[in-house]
Amino acid sequence: MMQEEKVNDRQQEESPHSAPYYSRRPKFGNKGPSKLRQHFSQGMTIFLVIAACVLFYFALLRLDDISRVIGMVVDVLKPIVYGLAIAYLLNPIVKQVDKYLVPLLEKKISKKRAMKISRAVGVVASLIFLVAMVVALCNMLIPELYKSIRNMIYTLPGQLNDLLEQMDGLLSMETTTNMLIRNVMEQATSSLLNWLRTDLMRQVNSLMSNLTVGVINVLSEVVDILIGLIVSVYVLFSKEQFAAQCKKIIYALFNTDHANMTLHLTKKSNEIFGGFIIGKIIDSAIIGVLCCLGLTLLDMPYIVLVSVIVGVTNVIPFFGPYIGAIPSAILILLEDPRKGIYFILFILLLQQLDGNVIGPKILGNSTGLSAFWVVFSILLGGGLFGFVGMIMGVPTFAVFYYVVSMLINHRLENKNLPLLSVHYGEKSYVDDQGRFVSDDIMLMGKELEEEVLSEEQAASETECEEKRGK
Q1: What is the pLDDT of residues 330-373, one digit of tens each?
Q2: Which residues, in sequence order, are CB contacts of 316 under 8 Å at separation 6+?
Q3: CB within 8 A of 252, min separation 6: which ones?
Q4: Is the separation of the CB atoms in 272 and 366 below 8 Å?
Q5: 318: alpha, beta or left, given left = phi > 0 and alpha = psi -120 to 50?
Q6: pLDDT (tens digit, 9 = 90+) per residue, 16-66?
């Protein structure tokens, strides 16, 4: 290469009419920065630091305006966000189609055409699967949900009256506890009537006035989802190109070590989020179907409504089954207390089956978190971002937990210390020379000491016996 460049330079010097040097892209940065440029760079660094501090101060003062602008940008880009989410969920289907169809097509046509045909078939198959699932769920659930809700509206007032009559019968006895409970119920009833006469009518009026706005918002969300569906098609067709462009940008902006670490964390995050979300959706669908079958066999009321509630809330880890079971149990208890008790027992058995058999088979250890950190992430995510935070909090915290564990393990490796937590027992420590002393080593030392002491004691006893014999 150096010889070719010298020959090219010599040819340019010999031929005056040849293309000048700057017609090609010149090489820059070979001589290093000058002193003036070094001083200018230092001054520019100081200026940028001060400017960043000033901008950060004014950003804190205008935090509401900034959040409003960010919200407007997110609303505008909602179709893109929906499209990326739909493409992420449909990507496993497209990958499976490419896995089986590309080798078959390569036997007859070129690899490039095989990839295009396979990708088109995979995208169309994934969209057909998505539309079929949505249509099937709507046809199955909406009529049944309508019937369940209508029956609940018709029967709930009578059930409440029966419950109140039973409580009146129990409270008819003149005891101090019954009188106290009766007074509390009378006050609660009067408060409820006042609320129905005053606050409820005002809230109904405001609700009716905002009904048009709500319908418009729902239609807007539906339009955004449809546009997102179109966006997902383009994303699925060009996902390799987008991935290559992102990788190129990362290698251009960061050092090699930082770029490789960023790509590693991206891949690990994809494994955690993909395994958790898709696995949880499959697990919740199975639980919803099993709940529907079990309630049908037990002849429970509100079968489809309760199954949908249990299946949807099962997406939330740990707390989801209880969130769905409590209102469902109340509905069934109002219909038939005996069936309500059976339903509670059935849900407990179903959740044991899910937690010990179905969930581990589908999800495995996709997050790598213990039960405490799962509860912690659910509470934190739910408190900050609501229902979405309760679902996405677990994989997000799992990624954060993986990064922290990786940094801690790197520090321990530099110090030649063990990585597993089981080695750090109650009596393990690191001495002044940086050597790790574990409980096992101390236990072995104690056993050796006891063996030496027992041998010395046996030797001393034999010496005493020999002296006595003499």
Answers
A1: 778 777 778 888 888 998 888 888 877 777 777 666 677 777 88
A2: 323, 378, 387, 390, 391
A3: none
A4: yes
A5: left
A6: 455 554 455 555 555 555 666 666 677 788 888 898 888 888 888 887 888
Angle at 38 between CA 33 and CA 44, to 5 degrees: 125
Rounded CA gap, 285 and 278, in Å? 11
Q: Length of the chain in residues, anyone?
A: 470
Rounded (to 5) percent helix, strand, coil in the chain: 85, 0, 15
pTM of the predicted model as reported, rounded to 2 decimal places: 0.66
Q: With contact defined as beta carbons under 8 Å apart, do 378 and 390 qualify?
A: yes
Report the distance separating Cα 203 and Cα 52, nearest Å.
47
Q: Cα–Cα distance between 282 and 33 in angstroms, integer?
A: 59
* SS3 per-residue string spanning 427-447: CCEECCCCCEECHHHHHHHHH
Query: How many whole angstroms separate alpha carbon 257 and alpha carbon 251?
Result: 10
In contact, 317 and 258? CB cutoff 8 Å: no
